[in-house]
Design brief:
single chain, 366 residues, alpha+beta, Beta Polymerase, domain 2, 9 helices, 50% helix, cobalt ion binding, transport, membrane, cell membrane, Mg/Co-transport_prot_CorA
Length: 366
């Protein structure tokens, strides 16, 4: 009986959460070379002047990443490497175009796929909520016939699970080609979007559930919170929309570099992106509705307050008229010298107030 896990089982056991990166180096090149019969992993840490590389755990290792042999797949994962000269030096054996290196060093790139003949360049972006604020990070991928290069501007803990799966022969990834490894990276990025979107939906639902409560209704920042959710949805959609186009191009088989059974798995990744977009659109519509409801609710509360103030004003208006009349200094006023005149005027004022209150209550103004 084979000890290799089925591909579907391996895919189902992806770790959706990012791994802890608090103790990992901020600048490193992680290399994995594998085939059905060989496996090799090591980490290279750049020196302070970025002039050469040395191995963190074993200084006797070569001062540069190994070259893969025929039939092996070479995965180089660059983290926090911002020096263009160092990138050109390490990427020279792969013939990477200078425009690709320029894009890799750019902090903002929309998702795209570009065919350079011998390799594909794929730019993606991931998001994460940090202290309630949506932050983004660029992730780049270069796919060749026997190599995969991935780039991050800082440690994210995204691909640690894939590296662990490569070390475990039961997952059977070593028997797959470079295209399948690239698919695993793309699928992992999409899995990360589900976490981000789940956090986004939780924020939307938490506001929606308390939208009409007294405490939230009086929250002056509520409209700002709703607006930030709307802005977050725009940012997520600006990335997911072009990412869908990237996957559509890959699933169509337009690129010779991306071949084999990986195209079949990419269809599942494409369906996941469609699911993300549909969920995001539904949440975005809810946010827009919440904004309209909040503004209407605030307007209704203002109308109720104005109604109360208007009723109070109407109650005192006839009293003001009565007191104004009796405040005039005329000698010939019948009630001035009447023994019960004062009590008659007070009774009249009370009767007017009670009558107006009954009238307003029947008209449902109170």
């Amino acid at each position: 009986m084979s000890n290799t896990l089925p591909v579907s089982t391996a895919l189902d056991e992806h770790s959706l959460t990012r791994t802890d990166v608090s103790h990992v180096p901020l600048h490193a090149i992680h290399q994995t070379i594998y085939s059905a019969d060989t496996f090799f992993q090591t980490d290279y840490i750049p020196s302070e002047d970025n002039s050469f590389l040395y191995t963190e755990n074993n200084p006797l290792q070569p001062a540069a990443p190994h070259n893969a042999s025929s039939g092996e797949v070479n995965w180089l994962h660059f983290v926090g490497i911002h020096n263009p000269e160092l990138l050109k030096k390490v990427l020279a054996p792969y013939g990477i175009h200078e425009l690709v290196i320029e894009d890799i060093l750019s902090p903002k790139q929309r998702p795209k796929v570009e065919d350079y003949g011998d390799y594909l360049f794929i730019a993606t972006r991931v998001y994460q909520y940090n202290a309630g604020k949506l932050s983004s990070d660029q992730v780049y991928l270069i796919l060749g016939n026997d190599f995969v290069l991935t780039f991050q501007q800082r440690p994210l803990g995204l691909f640690s699970s894939i590296r662990e799966h490569l070390a475990d022969p039961r997952y059977g990834i070593r028997q797959k080609n470079a295209s399948f490894l690239a698919y695993r990276f793309i699928d992992r990025l999409i899995d990360d979007y589900f976490i981000t979107l789940d956090q986004y939906n939780h924020k939307v639902e938490s506001i929606d559930k308390t939208l009409f409560s007294d405490g939230v209704a009086g929250d002056s920042d509520l409209l700002g919170r709703i607006h930030r959710l709307k802005r977050d949805s725009v940012r997520l959609r600006r990335t997911l929309q072009p990412l869908r186009e990237v996957l559509l191009q890959l699933t169509r088989g337009e690129f010779a570099t991306f071949h084999g059974e990986s195209n079949i798995y990419l269809r599942d990744a494409y369906d996941h992106v469609l699911q993300l977009l549909e969920s995001l659109d539904a949440s975005r519509d809810m946010v827009m509705s919440m904004m309209d409801i909040h503004l209407s609710f605030q307007s209704n509360r203002l109308n109720q307050q104005m109604r109360v103030l208007t009723v109070i004003t109407l109650l005192f208006m006839p009293l003001t008229v009565i007191t104004g009349i009796y405040g005039m200094n005329f000698d010939n006023m019948p009630e001035l010298h009447w023994h019960y005149g004062y009590f008659m005027v007070l009774g009249l004022m009370v009767s007017v107030v009670v009558g107006l209150l009954v009238f307003f209550y029947k008209r449902k103004w109170l």
